[in-house]
UniProtKB/TrEMBL annotation:
Residues 1-24 form the signal peptide. PANTHER family: CYSTEINE PROTEASE FAMILY C1-RELATED (PTHR12411). Keywords: Signal. The lineage of its organism: Eukaryota, Viridiplantae, Streptophyta, Embryophyta, Tracheophyta. InterPro entries: Papain-like_cys_pep_sf, Peptidase_C1A, Prot_inhib_I29. This is Cathepsin propeptide inhibitor domain-containing protein.
Length: 173
């Protein structure tokens, strides 16, 4: 009887431990990774190293703000696209255009160019009866996915050439 009671006690102890372990692991499995964890993974993926701890903390705050914006945008139901984390997620809204969009000075419109605009707008540019109302060139393979092109867009000529070939191929079929 004592042996049987000991056996039952051991079995109940093991079952109790198993239940506690499964509860602990299920809590861990459903925890969302922290922003700091995402930031560390992002730093590894994009080989980002900061010169000092204050710089890293400042970039973490910018990353956090941008990450939360991305998460909020993607959680909305009627979006036709999704945002994602990329190599610029630690940049502010002001930093990115200042360093990655090429020309930074403002170009003033002259009166002669306004005259050209006025002349061209008076022409009848309605060609929808010839080409149709719309054409989604993405579906025809003429538009490539968005990618990093560098600061000087040195590959834009190649992209233009490839797109032109694709469009000509589609038009000749």
């Amino acid at each position: 009887m004592v042996l049987r009671m000991s056996y039952v006690l051991v079995v109940l102890t093991i079952l109790s431990m198993d239940h506690r372990i499964s509860q602990a692991t299920s809590r861990v499995a459903f925890q969302k990774p922290s922003i700091a964890h995402h930031f560390q993974q992002w730093m590894i993926k994009f080989s980002r190293v900061y010169s000092n701890e204050p710089q890293k903390q400042m970039r973490l705050e910018v990353f956090k703000k941008n990450f939360e914006f991305i998460e909020n945008f993607n959680s909305k139901a009627n979006q036709s696209y999704k945002l994602g984390v990329n190599e610029f997620t630690d940049r502010t809204k002001e930093e990115f255009p200042a360093t990655h969009t090429g020309l930074t000075r403002r170009i003033n419109v002259t009166s002669s160019s306004q005259a050209v605009d006025n002349t061209m707008s008076s022409w009848n540019w309605n060609v929808s009866n010839i080409v149709g109302q719309s054409k989604d060139w993405r579906m025809e393979g003429a538009v490539t996915p968005v990618k990093q092109q560098g600061q000087c867009c040195k590959f834009s000529g190649t992209v233009y050439y490839k797109q032109s070939l694709q469009i000509r191929k589609q038009c000749s079929n």
